[in-house]
Write a structure and sequence with these properties.
6-stranded parallel β-sheet, alpha/beta, 530 residues
Length: 530
Amino acid sequence: MKIVVVGDIGWKDLYHLGDEAMTDAAIELLRARGVTDITVTAGNPDIAAAFYGVSAVSRIGYVGRWSRARMEARLAQLDDELEAFEDDGGEAKDAITAIARADAVLIAGGGNLNSRHVQHVFERASMARIARHFGKPLALTSQTIGPDIADGDRALLQEILDDAVVIGARETDTEALLLRHGVDRAKVQHCMDDALMLTASDDDHSAMQQYVSDRYVIGSFAGHSKGTHLDDDQYYRLLASQLDAVAERFDARVLLVPHAGSLHDDRRRHDIGTHEEILRRSRSGRIETLPMITARQLVALTSRALLTVSSRYHPAVFGPAAGVPSLTVVPSYYSSVRMRGALRNVGLEGFALPVDAVESGTLQTVVADVLEHREAFTAHISKTVQTRQAEQNLWWDTLVARLRGAADPLVTLQEVPSWTAQFAWSSPVKAVFAVVHRLWEAEDRLRRQRQEFEDAAVRARDARDEASAAERQLRDELRSSQEQVALAEAGIAERGRIIRGLRRDLTEERARRVVRVADAVASLKKALRR
């Protein structure tokens, strides 16, 4: 069976650990089910092919900075390319050829089917159209969809959902959204994030040995305070002070591990730059920054950590998988859906904390309770993860079977009790989230309205430019016509002058002839009289 896997991977100067982890896990899970002929779509196919040991082709290539009109034009161009497509039998270098030759298409895990990342919606809609054109089954796994979906993006998203034979929703919010969008319940599976299944090799553990000590905590933080009420300096100071306190409480080092950066250079960009800012504001001397590492290496490093604290999403997956308490600092509505959803899957929703709760000291209270109840936590999480990983394997059995044309039933997930609900801080944290969610929703509405106004302004400007161009063309055509009329009139006038001249000349010549004839007649009469 040949499968094309669509993921956001293989960039020249950016390794996004979460995106890479989900595609990496998908490849591993496919291989475990006998699917070895795998092609991935990638930003740079050569990088992805070398990294994963599979074939790779270029993405369609939508870019976030493009205008919507340009994205729509590229999608329309794709339709024309499909109509004109002919397989030359050579090496597959693009997604159209790869999907034409494949048996199925799988959209790997991600959280970008929303209006904040609309270029990814266009990318996946393009893959869905290619699959539909060639009659190939399409499936999605490990997805967060929404929560922000503008009216203008709904039809495009619905196109993807309608084409899918099965869809894996990695949290209950996405599952509910899909059902609200009218997706058939028989093809919606609540599943886990596929990175829950990612494993580390001996080489990965060896590579991390240089950072491992008896006691360490892992921290991972995105690059800005966007979504919070803090400016960047306040945000970095808050994180530094919280991490200093955690380091003291655990008597441990804090290793700041980036989730976005380059594996090939040490430029201070993305998370690496953020971690440097946090380090500069730390007072404990216990915080260290690490270079970019791979997802599997982070799985190895997490396995021996005491705790993880992050504003990045995937520690909420890697930590529980390793039996490690994972606290998340939630900066936005989008992050809340993903982080709370991932932790809710394993009964740890209370470990997701809004920034307001972190400021009030709740994070340190949670850390104290984790220390006090470590054995109970370990018992809960080990049993829960074992259950969830077994269910995820069943989900993948079903997914591959559906892609092969079978009608295998979906998996019924076991209910998992909330381990964090027992603590006094759990209910207040939920109450804070209820308030900030309303604020975030209002902000999202305003952002969508602003974006709609900006899009309308772009369309109006484009229409104005088109009208101006049309007006210029008409003026040019009118001027050309006027010039031609003037030339014609000048020609007519010249011809009139010539004709009048000829007439005058002819009249004069006739007059001369008359005079000559008259003279000749007179001469003849004189001659006859003589």
